[in-house]
Every structure is written in structure tokens, then in C-alpha cells.
Write a structure and sequence with these properties.
The chain contains three helices and no strands. The protein is mainly alpha-helical. The longest helix has 20 residues, at about 1-20.
């Protein structure tokens, strides 16, 4: 019984960790249908497939950090720093 309980606890913990590792921000979650917003999404998807360094510029509050997280989540390095 104890072994079964420990196995269940381990499986529950693994599920919780997997849920925490999922990206919070994705390119698809960006809201916007304007031509400029669609172009940003297109470029973000494109650059996520490369190993290039990306510099995001814009005013405060425009979502640069969220976009950076989304690009990282869509990249091949998503599970690494």
C-alpha cells in the first residue's frame, strides 16, 4: 500500500512539474488583427526557428517581455535557458 501511495504521489508531482514548465506566453496568445500585429507575429514565428539573438524595441507597456518569452517558447531552445 505504501509503495502504491508513493508511486501515485510521484506521478502527481510529475504532472504538477509538467504543468509549471508549460509556456505562459505563446505567439498565438498575442491579441491583434491589425497588419502591424500580424507582421510582428509572423516575424516572431520566423525568428523563433533560428539561433539568432533578437533585440526587441518599443515603448514601455507594449509587451516586449511577453513577446520575448513567446519567441523563446516557440524556439528549439524552449527547454533550456
Amino acid at each position: 500500500q505504501k509503495f502504491g501511495r508513493l508511486q501515485q504521489e510521484l506521478e502527481d508531482t510529475r504532472r504538477q512539474l509538467a504543468a509549471q514548465r508549460r509556456p505562459k506566453h505563446t505567439i498565438a496568445s498575442f491579441i491583434g488583427a491589425s497588419p502591424a500585429a500580424l507582421e510582428v507575429k509572423r516575424q516572431a514565428r520566423r525568428v523563433a526557428q533560428t539561433d539568432s539573438t533578437v533585440l526587441l524595441l518599443g515603448e514601455t507597456g507594449t509587451g516586449k517581455e511577453l513577446l520575448a518569452h513567446a519567441i523563446h517558447a516557440a524556439s528549439r531552445r524552449a527547454h533550456r535557458p
